[in-house]
Amino acid sequence: MFGNYADLQGKMILVTGASSGIGAAVALALAEQGARLVLTGRDKSRLALTAQRHPSITRIAADLCVAAERNFLVDNTEALDGICHCAGISAPFPVKFVREKQQSQIMDINFSAPSLLTSALLYKKKLNVGASIVFVSSIASAFAYKGGAMYSASKAALEAYSRNIAIEHASQRIRTNCIRPGIVRTGIYDETTRIYGEKLMAEHNNFYPLGIGEPEDVASLALFLLSRASRWMTGANITLDGGLLAGK
Ligand SMILES: NC(=O)c1ccc[n+]([C@@H]2O[C@H](COP(=O)([O-])OP(=O)(O)OC[C@H]3O[C@@H](n4cnc5c(N)ncnc54)[C@H](OP(=O)(O)O)[C@@H]3O)[C@@H](O)[C@H]2O)c1
User: Which option is the CATH number for 6-239: 3.40.50.300, 3.40.50.720, 3.20.20.140, 3.40.50.10490?
Assistant: First the structure.
């Protein structure tokens, strides 16, 4: 289903959140194109499951919120042609219950980890000329929902960070783009259904003209953004929502 992006053959690409959901789908799609991969996540056994589908994969288990583990990843990664930042959580909280703990729980992994990781890789010259960076953001960066204040803020911050990379690193042809998915069937979807209830989720899902997404739908767009087919795109936020916002 992914098409053929021949230029990804042999490219070295880091995928975070590769132990499940969208990150695992991106990793498998890139492996199909012949990319060389560094996969990271916290759960070693699920990371191994993703990696076993392809021989030339390096696995580095890391909690990206821990500076020492992030630095280990940076130091043990060879120069990259691309990154797909998928690690993230949703953790909904009503605005009035947000305290430092809830704020840092989301901001640390959704914003601080991918931005500090990218900055460190750039500083250590571990992104090759022409590299492509993809951040998995969310439609929540621009659209509110009850309980989404911190999640929306984390993704909006990520998009702002991405746009600045686009300006600062265009001279090296380093590109950066954000994917804004609507609801995708992954662990986050299961957790959201547990919190909001099956009835509410079913009602919401009905607003998607093409139904809710699968991880492979996001992987498909990530492949395009990581390949040279998107060579004139940088600093963009691309909505991928099965038509949800078309009717809003
Ligand atoms: N599913 C949706 O509806 C949806 C919609 C819009 C955007 N997104 C975004 O898509 C991205 C991927 O989410 P998903 O839906 O694929 O959910 P998922 O299946 O729960 O995957 C989340 C991934 O993030 C990793 N992760 C979480 N905390 C981490 C930490 N501290 N350090 C390192 N890795 C960590 C997890 O690794 P371990 O399990 O190994 O800890 C896991 O691989 C997220 O950024 C999410 O915000 C999802």
Answer: 3.40.50.720
